[in-house]
Amino acid sequence: MTSPLTFTYEGTTFTKGKTMHMNGRTALKFSRMRYDDPQGDYGRQNRQRLVIAALLHKSVSYKTVLNSDFLVSISDEMKTDLTRSDMLKLALNYRKAGKNVSSDHAQGVGEEIGGQDFEVVSKTEQQRVSNKLRKSLGLKM
């Protein structure tokens, strides 16, 4: 993954524009930092999407499903009831889907309500996101 900003979190440094291979623990550090990100939680969500996209890209290859080193590297960070055969079928059937992924987010504004911080999303933004989802699912608008 390529870091969108430079930061250090839990002893690991990430450099803006530098691409690095990450194991599960490093990817968690990359995706968890929030308070030093100029975009706050939105920046963290963006890095989380980068991690998910990288995992999707890596996992849609049948070679990955058959790669024991990869499976061992993620085994401490995930649990599944899928068999190796199930994973191979998923990889083979959905490998083209990895090329057709888009992401978005609902943009809100921070508000304090009852002493708690919330992100409040306007009706207009809610409708925009709903319309985008409905369109991508082939549902009536």
Structure characteristics:
Aminopeptidase; 4 strands; two-stranded antiparallel ribbon; mainly alpha; 141 residues
> Main beta sheet, described?
2 strands, antiparallel
Q: Approximately how much helix is present in the residues?
A: 40-55%
Tell me the name of the CATH class of the largest domain.
Answer: Alpha Beta
What is the CA-atom radius of gyration, in angstroms? 18 Å
Number of helices: 6
Count of domain modules = 2
Strand order of the largest sheet: 1-2
Separation of the first and last Cα atoms = 36 Å
CATH fold type of the largest domain: Aminopeptidase
Low-pLDDT parts are none
Coarse structural class: mainly alpha
Instruction: Summarize the helix and strand pattern as letters.
Output: EEHHHHHEEH
The general outline is globular
What is the CATH architecture descriptor of the largest domain? 3-Layer(aba) Sandwich
Mean of pLDDT: 86
Number of strands: 4
CATH superfamily assignment of the largest domain?
LCP protein
